[in-house]
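User:
Can I borrow your eye for a moment on a structure tokenisation matter? Would you put together a sequence-and-structure record for a protein of your own picking? Please set it down just below, with no commentary around it:
AI:
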Amino acid sequence: MTTHREATFVEGLWVEKEPLSSSTAPAVPEVGCTSAPLESAAFFLASYCKKYNEDFVLCKNESQDPKHCLKEGRKVTRCSLDLIEKLKKNCDAQWSKHWQCLDMNNHQLFHCRKEERSFNDCVFKSLGLTKIIPETPEDQVPVHLKEKPLYK
């Protein structure tokens, strides 16, 4: 038995032959962000939605069937939407400056450290979130907390 479903190519869009029922996948709006805002908020999304992300990954490891983890995927999407709404409400100006800098500098983080520091400070103070960079050595200051980064 295969999990592959045929799709139809219509005027540049992929259209599923069998739409999902609401019992299979509860409706949830799309996140609607491009790569720059998502990259800008990535570490905060990781910490804010950690339990949902972990559930989704565990579910994906259980089965190769795409329908198996739709509910867990929807929870991740809802959590992401919730954080994005909070970022827009509390830190919109700082977030916009940071992701626009990333967008204009080919997503190279070192070009946008000044905007990142401002955005981080706002998120730390307004939302109380932390930013943990995986595999940062314990004896080193994380790059986003350095007072005099190599690149300004």
